[in-house]
Amino acid sequence: MLTFVLSGLSKIAALPQMKVAWMAVEGPGSREALERLEIIADSYLSLGAPAQNALPEWLRASAGVQRAICLRVNANLAALDELIAAQSLVTRLKVEAGWYAILRLPTSRMTKRSLSVCLKRKQVLAQPGHLFGMHGDCRLIVSLLTEETAFKEGVRRILEFGTRLPGSSPS
Questions:
Q1: Which helix (H) or strand (E) covers residue 128, if one does?
Q2: Residues 60, 66, 72, CA angle at the centre, nearest 5°?
Q3: CATH (domain of 152)
Q4: Residue 30 and residue 70 in one domain
Q5: Does residue 69 register a pLDDT over 50?
Q6: Most buried one in 21, 94, 129, 166, CB count within 10 A?
Q7: How far is the C-alpha of 80 from the C-alpha of 74, rounded, in Å?
Q8: What is the DSSP letter of 131?
């Protein structure tokens, strides 16, 4: 099977605006795929000189950035689990990778609009699951990269309005 593995600075060094990426291609037809990709890359995706010059330093610094990201994500995930354990209405889906957590709110009767109104009223920055194609249960995506004190406060606010949603009742 022809396989493409992609990576870049936006994720490994937390530099989302620095468009430096790479790809590994393996499997049958990989040579032809790479030749075709080379034409596209040379024509449309050239790497700018400032990024080329900064790349060695960015890569050197990436290990420290990755450690800091892992510490923050793990601390926020632990705090989220602790806060969720203190109630029974909002649950967290299994985190398989990345720096987001998906919360399942206690009702599927909440509309996209009412969820947006609750988030705005509680001054919480989070993404409703329907923006990611999640339909059915009411889900909310929270970033585990948020500064830890602000993250805990945001989760407390989500849990507070999660317990007051129409159709919510403690289990």
A1: strand 127-128
A2: 145
A3: 3.90.1150.10
A4: no
A5: yes
A6: 129
A7: 10
A8: G
User: Within this chain, do residues 83 and 137 fall inside the same structural domain, yes or no?
Assistant: yes
Q: Are 162 and 110 in contact (CB under 8 A)?
A: no
- CB-based contact 122:157 (threshold 8 Å): yes
Kind of pairing, strands 100-104 and 127-128? Answer: unpaired
Residue 23 domain-assigned?
yes
- CA 102, distance to chain mean position in Å, is 9
Q: Are residues 86 and 21 in the same domain?
A: no
> pLDDT for 2-42, tens place per residue?
999 988 888 788 888 888 888 899 999 999 999 999 888 88
Residues 27 and 84 both lie in one domain: no
The two structure tokens encoding residue 61: 């610094």
* Domain presence at residue 35: yes
Find tokens 């602790």 and name the residue. 82
**Cβ neighbourhood burial of 163 (10 Å; 0-12, 13-18, 19+):** middle
Separation between Cα atoms, residue 94 and residue 81, nearest integer Å: 11
